[in-house]
Specification:
The chain is 38% helix and 15% strand. The protein has a single domain, classed as Aldolase class I (TIM Barrel, Alpha-Beta Barrel). It is globular and about 50 Å long. An 8-stranded parallel β-barrel has the order 1-2-3-4-5-6-7-8, surrounded by 7 helices. The longest helix is centred in the first third of the chain and has 13 residues. It is an alpha/beta fold. The protein contains 9 helices and 8 strands. It comes from bacterium (Candidatus Blackallbacteria) CG17_big_fil_post_rev_8_21_14_2_50_48_46. Keywords: Carbohydrate metabolism, Isomerase. It is an enzyme of class 5 (isomerase). Pathway: Amino-sugar metabolism; N-acetylneuraminate degradation; D-fructose 6-phosphate from N-acetylneuraminate: step 3/5.
Amino acid sequence: MFNLETLHHALIVSCQPEADEAFYNHRFVTGMAQAALLGGAKGLRLNGPETIRHVRMQVEAPVIGLWKRTYPKSEVYITPTLADAEEILAAGADILALDATSRPRPGGESLAQIVTALKVKDVCLMADISTLEEGKEAERLGFDCISTTLSGYTPYSRQQKEPDFQLLQALKQAVSLPVIMEGRIWTPEQAMVAQELGAYAVVVGSAITRPQLIARRFVARMADPFAEI
């Protein structure tokens, strides 16, 4: 199983352009990944088996793999099913990220069933959660690390523009697993705060790899110095 120690106190860069964005192709994603590693990042977070395969041919850094998929009658979209998870592993992911919220999964699968099936394969599992209770349950189920990825992206979790440092602190007190900080980190200062609060590693995505969002923040501030960005 992948040794998480290699990512301790590391910057992990999420390279996940959406389908309607200019950088949505494997060549651009690979370039983003290479640039992030040249800048000192130690790991990558990548979406989809084809993307993972293409980036894997060019870089050797650890990859957190996931597959964002939409299924009818389910709000779970980060690696929703066991079949999705197995494809991500086959593509070469070192760590497999799963939506570990309490929401119903497609096809009637339970999160516990998926985790049990994957642990037989000696897989390093990351729980993407949105609340403290989901983090506690992830530890009970046998995940290897927890990420704050989904805080603010479920209707019942804390809704705010800033990173959810409160959730990070609560998880640090309640679980023994490594807790990775992800979500709405826009500045190096925020990443530093996360590390000081005990984050095992920090994931940054949009602030590094989504140029249209970065440009939008500049434009908004230039138009209105008091605009919320």
